[in-house]
């Protein structure tokens, strides 16, 4: 038997039923049809876990992920905004401003609709960073 031969489940029309679960033959042994998926899942769990999202996403992605989320969740994560503007439509705009040594480094705005959901995002600056408390 060739050790590099790719195993095939129920090859050449060979299949069996065991309690309604289809099984096939690999290397002369019968295995449940879900066996290859279980092996792949086990191997995947051995790999290193990815770094936290904050480390791998851009600021644009970090801001955009708040779309359709609640204002309460945003404020809970980012803290109390530095400014808030009510709109005639019933919504409002909340603004986070990052300042260092008297200079504005980044301004980020979230437009909140009348139901309290983030509908638009906008930012401008040279050193935009997700707040450390989020």
Order of helices and strands: EEEHHHHEEEE
The SS-based structural class is alpha+beta
Domain count: the total is 2
Task: Give the overall pLDDT as a whole number.
Answer: 73
Largest pleated sheet:
4 strands, antiparallel
Could you tell me how far the N terminus lies from the C terminus, measured between alpha carbons in angstroms? 57 Å
Strand tally: 7
Morphology: globular
The stretches of 5 or more residues where confidence is low (pLDDT under 50) are 6-26, 34-56
State the helix count: 4
In the CATH hierarchy, the architecture of the largest domain is 2-Layer Sandwich
Helix content: 10-25%
Looking at the structure, the CATH topology of the largest domain is: Beta-lactamase Inhibitory Protein, Chain:B, domain 1
Notes on the protein architecture:
With 134 residues, the chain is of the alpha+beta class. The chain has two domains: 11-46, no CATH class; 53-125, Beta-lactamase Inhibitory Protein, Chain:B, domain 1. The protein is built from four helices and seven strands. The protein has helices at 35-46, 53-56, 59-64, 71-78; strands at 16-18, 21-26, 29-32, 83-86, 92-100, 103-112, 118-125. The strands form two sheets. The chain has a four-stranded antiparallel sheet. It has a three-stranded antiparallel sheet with strand order 1-2-3, with no helix packed on it. The longest helix is centred in the N-terminal third of the chain and has 12 residues, at 35-46. The radius of gyration is 27 Å and the shape is globular. It starts with 15 loop residues before the first strand and ends in a 9-residue tail after the last strand.
């Amino acid at each position: 038997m060739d050790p590099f031969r790719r195993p095939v489940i129920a090859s050449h029309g060979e299949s069996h039923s065991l309690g309604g679960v289809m099984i096939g033959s690999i290397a002369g042994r019968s295995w449940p049809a879900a066996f290859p998926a279980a092996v792949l899942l086990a191997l995947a769990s051995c790999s290193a876990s990815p770094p936290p999202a904050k480390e791998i996403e851009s600021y644009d992605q970090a801001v955009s992920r708040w779309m359709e989320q609640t204002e309460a969740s945003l404020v809970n994560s980012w803290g109390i905004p530095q400014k808030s503007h009510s709109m005639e439509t019933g919504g409002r705009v909340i603004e986070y401003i990052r300042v260092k040594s008297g200079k504005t480094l980044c301004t980020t705005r979230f437009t909140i609709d009348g139901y309290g959901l983030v509908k638009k995002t906008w930012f401008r600056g040279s050193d935009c960073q997700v707040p450390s408390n989020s």
